[in-house]
Design a protein that fits this description.
This protein has about 260 residues and is an alpha/beta fold. The chain has ten helices and nine strands. The radius of gyration is 18 Å and the shape is globular.
Length: about 260
């Protein structure tokens, strides 16, 4: 367990809260493990009707903690990152997300596997994988073109530039955009309302909604992980990381 993830049962909703404000909720392997375990426990707990993912301190998550990531690269199906991805991807209960501030990397791609996503108008999403010398992950290369179209998905993934909550709504990533001060109340209201619905019918509906693309998404996720792992060992990633720690722009001009 880690103090950087808070688990709160509020009514019949389990809130999984990323709480590492000094690092903008940057994710460590311990945090991935805690979130994966919390999802698994919520699935097995009949008192829990749905899960809420959110961050503290006006931030969702700034993505992976690069220092921890370099020490513990996510290799293999049993890595903390892969376990979290799999548990969220296969979760039979509804998952809601409350997005405020930064949602970087997996902070954005995990939203593609939530059922309802609400964002503050201050939210800033980004998928900077290519800029880091890596490929997309978490089946984002499969899901994103299907919800916002090929050309928009290409723009978001190839350039990896930040985009705002309204753009995320137009892309089909976000359900509703509200003021930052209204976000938690809105998500709590939606979670409580959802918890009053017939639970078996809710689970069956989620299963049917996801069934047509579930296996294909899982297959793409596996393919992405192979290429992502290869990228972690590549020179482009090393240049990107070195530049980050040296606080300079990376130079990819000599790469082919």
């Amino acid at each position: 367990m880690t103090d950087d993830i808070q688990i709160k049962l509020e009514g019949r909703s389990l809130h999984i809260v990323m709480d590492r404000p000094k690092r903008k909720n940057a994710l460590t392997m311990a945090m991935y493990t805690a979130m994966a375990d919390a999802i698994n426990n919520a699935v097995e707990n009949d008192e829990v009707r749905n899960i809420v993912l959110r961050g503290e301190a006006d931030c969702f998550t700034s993505g992976n903690d690069l220092e921890d990531f370099m020490k513990n690269p996510p290799q293999g199906d049993d890595s903390p990152v892969a376990t979290f991805m799999r548990n969220l991807y296969n979760c039979p209960k509804p998952v809601l997300a409350a997005v405020d501030g930064d949602a970087v990397g997996i902070g954005t791609t995990m939203l593609l596997h939530c059922d309802l996503v609400y964002a503050a108008n201050t939210a800033r999403l980004q998928m900077p994988f290519v800029s880091l010398g890596l490929c997309p992950e978490y089946a984002s290369s499969y899901v994103l073109p299907r919800i916002c179209g090929h050309v928009k998905a290409s723009e978001l993934l190839l350039f990896g530039e930040p985009f705002d909550a309204q753009t995320a709504k137009e892309c089909g990533i976000v359900n509703e955009v509200v003021g930052s001060s209204e976000l938690l109340a809105l998500v709590t209201e939606k979670a409580n309302k959802l918890a009053k619905q017939p639970p078996a019918a809710i689970r069956a509906t989620k299963q049917l909604l996801r069934a047509p693309r579930r296996q294909e998404g899982a297959d793409v996720m596996d393919e992405e992980m192979v290429l992502f792992s290869k990228g972690l060992e590549g020179k482009e990633f090393m240049e990107a990381v070195t530049a980050f720690f040296e606080k300079r722009a990376p130079d990819f001009s000599s790469f082919n």
